[in-house]
Amino acid sequence: MRGDSKVPTRSFATLISRLRPSVLLIGLLIGGFSTPARADAETTATVALLAASELSLGIDMLQTLNIRWHPASWETNPILGRHPSDVAVINYFAVAMVGTALVTYALPKNWRMLAPILVLAVQVPMIARNASYGLQIRF
């Protein structure tokens, strides 16, 4: 083994010059054979509703996590119990969010807006009620 472990600076430049044609070829293949994504109005509305329903679930989760700072308050969701742990709350809402997305995309295209609309129909009044009780969103 030789004592000098310096890598010549020319080797990096040589490597780049050898890889450049490959990178250009891959870029041309990807750009040449890909089709641009086109979203119709229904897909855009479904994605917007799904994002709103996921956001509402996130807000409800943060409000639920805030219950412990209000000793006179308790959780009314029978699945979580009166005083759920933070882990139980986070797990419940994570499953709810993933479930909402899975159901939304499992439904036929004409029915996909139904799942997020139903989630919003339940969540918006619940968030308003929680806010009226003084529950806040804390990070």
Our count of helices gives 4
Unreliable stretches (pLDDT < 50, length at least 5) are none
- Can you tell me the overall shape? elongated
Largest sheet: none
Instruction: Assess the beta-strand content as a share of residues.
Output: under 5%
Order of helices and strands: HHHH
Look at the structure and give the mean pLDDT: 80
What does this structure look like?
There is one protein chain. The longest helix has 25 residues, at 9-33. The protein has a domain at 41-132. Helices cover 65% and strands 0% of the residues. It is mainly α and 139 residues long. It has four helices and no strands. The chain is elongated. The model has no long low-confidence stretch (mean pLDDT 80).
Q: Which helices and strands, and how do they pair?
A:
Layout: H1 9-33, H2 41-65, H3 86-106, H4 114-132
Helix pairs in contact: 2-3, 2-4, 3-4
Summarize the structure.
65% of the residues lie in helices and 0% in strands. It has helices at 9-33, 41-65, 86-106, 114-132.
Question: Descriptors for this entry?
Answer:
139 residues, mainly alpha, 4 helices, 65% helix
